[in-house]
Amino acid sequence: MNVNFYVTCIADVMKAGVAKNTVLLLEKLGCNVIFLEKQGCCGQPAINSGYTKQALAGMKTLVETFEENDYPIVAPAGSCVYAIKTYPEHFERFGEKAWAERAKKVADRFFDLTDFIVNKLGVKDVGAYLPGKAVYHPSCSLFRKLGIKEEPITLLKNVKGLELLPIKNQETCCGFGGTFSVKMAEISGEMVKEKVANIDTDEPDYLIGADVSCLMNIGGRLSREGKPIKVMHIAEVLMQGEK
């Protein structure tokens, strides 16, 4: 199957390993991965900050880029996928009906990585191996906005050697929320502090998530508290070799 890869800004600039492992994982599962070089930022930071009108030009560029073919588009970040799926309503709001129609066709082809693997490829066990105890943090964009809740859990439960632990208030926001963590820094700081306290209760070896932004936020707090918990994106976990 031919698949477009949408790298996302954070994976491109901050977490190249997540992008690399996403591509390797898709190839391992039989996909021919295509990278359209004109792709850029989805505009999520501007949209979340109320500057949607200023983001329209970049949104149009992204739509045009992925109109080059009609293959599925896979990204390792639910927040970006959700932002793109809201394009049609933003274009409609500013009277850009033609662009709204074009954006919907592109948005309908966008998938979070775990959603694509489980629901499009029909794969629940990718043959990964990672010994140890782990907790999973579901990002708000992934499970609240996109409704993707069981797919990451299904994949992680099939990682050999990995014990997946429940945590208190697992679905509570980590406090990142894009620009929320900047504008409401004190509140955000208390939220991630609480999240880390819940994560550390059973002293897991790994914190796993499917959104890089959340992992950076929680990972930063873990580091400041000196917690020896390794932070991993699910794409990195699923590429750990079977023993």
Molecular structure report:
- Pfam families: CCG.
- Residues 3-85, 135-218 form the Cysteine-rich domain.
- The chain has helices at 9-13, 16-28, 44-48, 52-66, 78-85, 87-93, 97-107, 113-120, 140-145, 150-157, 180-183, 185-199, 212-224, 234-238, and strands at residues 2-5, 32-34, 73-75, 110-112, 129-137, 160-165, 206-209, 230-233.
- By secondary structure, the protein is α/β, with parallel strands linked by helices.
- Helix 6 (87-93) runs antiparallel to helix 7.
- The radius of gyration is 18 Å and the shape is globular.
- It has 14 helices and eight strands.
Set out the fold topology.
Blueprint: E1 2-5, H1 9-13, H2 16-28, E2 32-34, H3 44-48, H4 52-66, E3 73-75, H5 78-85, H6 87-93, H7 97-107, E4 110-112, H8 113-120, E5 129-137, H9 140-145, H10 150-157, E6 160-165, H11 180-183, H12 185-199, E7 206-209, H13 212-224, E8 230-233, H14 234-238
Parallel strand pairs: 1-2, 1-3, 3-4, 5-6, 5-7, 7-8
Pfam family, one: CCG
InterPro entries: Cys_rich_dom
GO molecular function: oxidoreductase activity
